[in-house]
Amino acid sequence: MTDTLTAARLLAAAPARLGGIWLRGAGPEREAALALLTAAFDGRAVRRVPVHIDEERLCGGLNVAASLAAGHRIEQTGLLQEAAGGLLVVPMAERMSALVAGRIAQAMDAGAGFALVLLDDGGEDEAPPVALTERVGFWCEGVVSTKSVESQDNDPSRLSRAKSRDVISDGCDTSLDTLGTNGGEKVVASLANLSLALGVDSARALLFAQTAMRLHAQSHSRESTDEDLAFTARTILGPRATRIPQKADDTPPPPPEAEDEPPPGDAESEQEQHDPDALDDLILAAALASIPKDVLARIGEGRSARRATGAGGAGRKRASQLRGKPLGARPGLPRGGARLALIDTLRAAVPWQEIRRQQEAADAPKRLRIRKGDLRIRRFEERAEALTIFAVDASGSSALARLAEAKGAVELMLAQSYVKRAQVALIAFRGTSAELLLPPTRSLTRAKKVLGELPGGGGTPLALGLAAAAELAETQAARGRTPFVALLTDGKGNIDKHGQPGRAQAGEDALAAARRFAGSGTQGVVIDISARPQPEAAAIAAAMRARYLALPRADARGVEQAVSALQFGKAS
Amino acid sequence: MAFPFSAIVGQDEMKRALLISAVDPRIGGVMVFGDRGTGKSTAARALSALLPPMVAIAGCRYNCAPDEADRCPDQCGARKTAKVPVPFVDLPLGATEDRVLGALDLERALGRGEKAFEPGLLARAHRGYLYIDEINLLEDHLVDLLLDVAQSGENLVEREGLSVRHPAKFVLIGSGNPEEGELRPQLLDRFGLSVEVKTPQDIEQRIEIMRRCDAQERDGAAFAADWAEADAKIVKRIAKGKKALPKVAMPDETLQDAASLCIAVGADGLRGELTLMRAARAYAALEGAKSAERKHLRAIAPMALRHRLRRDVLDETGSTARIDRALTELFG
Fold first, then answer.
1. Helix (H) or strand (E) holding A398
2. Where in the numbering of this chain does the AAA+ ATPase domain appear (chain B) (predicted)?
3. For residue B141, which residues of chain A lie inside 8 Å, CB to CB?
4. Which residues from B are below 8 Å from A337, CB to CB?
5. Is residue A460 within a helix (H) or strand (E), and if so which, with residue range?
6. B203 and A192: CB-CB below 8 Å?
7. Tell me: the pLDDT tens digits for A98-110?
8. What is the DSSP string of A380-392?
9. Of the partner residues B37, B109, B198, the one whose CB lies closest to the CB of residue A342
10. CA-to-CA distance for B237 and B285, rounded, in angstroms?
11. How far apart are CA B236 and CA B234, in angstroms?
């Protein structure tokens, strides 16, 4: 029995208290867990939520089409009500919109009592909305991972005992009450300890862990043991970790006057050995194994996850049904936030009134005959404007080529900027400084004038260039533009952030600047057009949480197409 | 069933801010900064459940109080009154303007050709609480609109040929994690109080959280009964504070303290002083004091000013630390 399957079982036993399960990746493990859950919820409602479900279907409300046809109010029940006490499966959860996620989260908070299953097919930089992952207890792998294989050694014979299976499958929320306070204080204390060490701050996670640990112990008909704690660590607390536990770090350094005492390291480790609350190595190891490798990168996850769920970087949704400049009406049903354009609807219905009345029975009530096809909804154009910031490494021997291609790409983009409502800016960095050569503009003429003669050569102040790009992106974002940074470099900085030469320091500074860039949440791409791309540029891209493209010997058109494709979702 | 307000572990500042806003709703809402799962919505919900039921016109869609029924768009004045719980409205992320403000009643418009208004969440929140989780992710124009209504106490709808005006007085509670997106400073400034919440980094408190949540899940009724007495005390404190509020004196020294504090920390605009004054008075009333003294001012200064400081990119110290420093320098 793998962790994922065990988690699914426990979830089936106490859906309301464990919230649900987040299954990452598609694989046999996920199928097995789903099958197990579906079987366990046999007889209760099992519903699937398509990602782009509209609000009316989700929460219930007026069924516009049916009401019109019938001439009186027809309500439809929402999926969330239907799923109460059952199972709610969300395929492609990483694509879910904030609106749908917000509704589901609200229903869970209100005690809808369904178990939520998030099927996540996303890649590394995509995740389901945080509002939902926060509210599901288990974070498990859908593909068999080494972690779950390891866990098989915790005595499969016991799990397969008929008795334990009965407890699980018959179990419902009330069975928890019969548990008493097994394990008691010590267990609670060790959970508190573990969550603190892992930097798991949410009280929800703590409560999930408590319930899961009890159930896990109960399924083995025993008091809570370290094994149960380890299971919780692997499936609930570990994956949520925001820091790597370090024993010494949690204890404040001893005051300086205590220097005649034994070395602090020894004192601490001894103290921890005697401390009954101290973390067991075994549990820590279990938690460590499940800590995602990119713990640090994930700290700003809220933003990156949200960013990934949105459309491309091209100034958010461009045609909107909700806000912006009115664009006129088009046929459609007023749902999912779209508003009915009443006048246009009536205008569409009026010419048909005579014909429709003739089709109806003579004693039909006298009323306006509006059909589904008459409905018009409003459309708006959003004002968010895209901005492409080129940050170009103008140093060294390849400078001239790189600059020339960047310049070409800028001009190509500007040629279409009016259509795309996009602006372009260019920053060049060389020598000991980064310079904003072309402030954000939509004017091709201006760009041509400014970019006529660009100087090149000298050192590579990569950190400065990145910082300048990030700063420009942030100030522009504050003005309501959606910036996108295209960094053209080979990633080999040799001037640090203070303008001093030195490869090691420069590299560190560049990575730090890249991480800061990632923290700003701006989207970007790193393009390396040198003949033999080196790993440095990829490392910078990873730290920026940006895409990396190696385009050996690409020309201006190639660069422009790559940037457009990433920023606007399609090549121009 | 709501978690008893008095059973919430720690989070003293947030609880204090909520109580102050209950004593004087005009203070203008509370912004809560903090991670998910730190008990923000639990506390807000608990407070609204704690408050005694209010008298309203029975079945009125606008929660009209009997004395304001003449202004009700539904003209509900002739109807009977009833005691209803204080509303707590949870605004979902991604809510549309229609749902918040209210909109044309589609069914009546299409079915019967009537132009009727369907009240939105603002009407439902009248005289109660409007809680917005992740307010920093809400559309800016919606936040503008909400703050505007929260301040004027009235919702004016002029759209789709409708012209409706109805009272909407509520305490706005916003929450959000600033790391996931900032709220514009202009909007922040319009919140009366702001607090920062963190999960306790202390083992004992964490254990206590688990213990209490467990106790509630096992037997909600018994748990509520255990805390009923403590909750009743809080209700009494709020009621007393509300009654005493108009009588609490505001000595000149306190006003001077408030002004010099605002100058010292460099809070923009006059909202800082005004909020300091109102919050200090409400807090004094809550504490049963006859006049608002320096100690009351001190206790509420961080939450009244924290979000109004000009941000200095170079200065890494947080706003709270800067206020604390100013407090120590000024008042010792």
1. none
2. 26-201
3. 323
4. 94, 96, 98
5. none
6. yes
7. 778 888 888 888 7
8. EE---EEEEEEEE
9. B109
10. 9
11. 5
Question: What is the structure's pLDDT at A488?
Answer: 85
Q: Would you say A235 and A7 are in contact if contact means Cβ atoms under 8 Å apart? A: yes
B217 with A176: Cβ contact below 8 A: yes
Which option is the CATH number for A386-568: 3.40.50.300, 3.20.20.140, 3.30.230.10, 3.40.50.410?
A: 3.40.50.410
Structure tokens at A520: 């700003």
Q: Compute the average pLDDT of residues A225-251.
A: 72
Could you give the CA distance from residue A101 to residue A91 in angstroms, rounded to a whole number? 13
B248-296 per-position pLDDT tens digit: 999 999 999 899 888 888 877 788 889 999 999 999 999 988 899 889 9
Amino acid at A125: D
Report which of B165, B106, B103, B208 is spatially closest to residue A192, judged by C-alpha positions.
B208
Alpha helices in B27-120 (DSSP H): 40-50, 97-101, 106-111
Decide if B139 and A323 are in contact by the 8 Å CB cutoff. yes
pLDDT at residue B80, as a whole number? 80
Measure CA A484 to chain center: 19
Q: What is the pTM of this model?
A: 0.64
ipTM of this predicted structure:
0.76
CA distance to partner chain A, nearest, from residue B38 (Å): 6
Which domains can be identified in chain B, with CATH numbers? 5-51+86-197 (3.40.50.300), 246-331 (1.10.8.80)
A547 phi and psi, to 5 degrees?
-70, 155
Is A202's CB within 8 Å of B214's CB?
no
For A103, counting Cβ atoms within 10 Å of its Cβ (0-12 exposed, 13-18 middle, 19+ buried), the class is buried
Q: Are strands A376-381 and A325-331 parallel, antiparallel or unpaired?
A: antiparallel
Kindly report, residue by residue over A335-360, the tens digit of the pLDDT: 666 777 777 787 777 777 777 877 77
Other Cβ atoms within 10 Å of B2 Cβ, number: 16
Active site residue B271: yes
Percent of chain A with pLDDT over 90: 0
For residue A147, give the nearest of A40, A17, A7 by alpha carbon: A7
A224 within 8 A of A274, measured Cβ to Cβ: no
Which residue type is seen at B20? I
Would you call B94 and A97 a contact, using CB atoms and an 8 Å cutoff?
Answer: yes
* Burial class of A545 by CB neighbour count within 10 A (0 to 12, 13 to 18, 19+): buried
Q: Which DSSP state fits A126?
A: -
CA distance B218 to B238: 30
The two three-digit tokens of residue A206, written as one number: 């703590």
Helix or strand (DSSP H, E) at A224: none
Q: Where in chain A is the domain with CATH 3.40.50.410?
A: 386-568
A3-240: CATH number = 3.40.50.300
Confidence of residue A272 (pLDDT cuts 50, 70, 90): very low
Chain B nearest CA to A178, separation (Å): 10
Residue among B96, B112, B210 minimizing CB distance to A337: B96
> Do residues B288 and B19 touch, judged by C-beta distance below 8 A?
no
**Alpha helices for B245-305 (secondary structure H):** 252-265, 271-287, 294-305
Residue of A nearest to B100 (CA): A337
Phi-psi region of B59 (alpha: psi -120 to 50; beta: other; left: phi over 0): left
Q: Which residue reads 């009248």 in tokens? A: B126
Q: Which of A175, A202, A372 to mutate to test the interface with B (most CBs of B within 10 A)?
A: A202
Q: Which long-range contacts (CB under 8 A, 24 or more apart) does B220-226 make?
A: B220/B1, B223/B4, B223/B7, B224/B1, B224/B4, B226/B7
Interface of B with A in 279-318 (CB under 8 A): none
**Structure tokens given for B225:** 């009964």
Task: Calculate the average pLDDT of chain B.
Answer: 83
* Shortest CA distance from B2: residue in chain A: A110
User: Given B16, B61, B127, B271, which residue is catalytic?
Assistant: B271
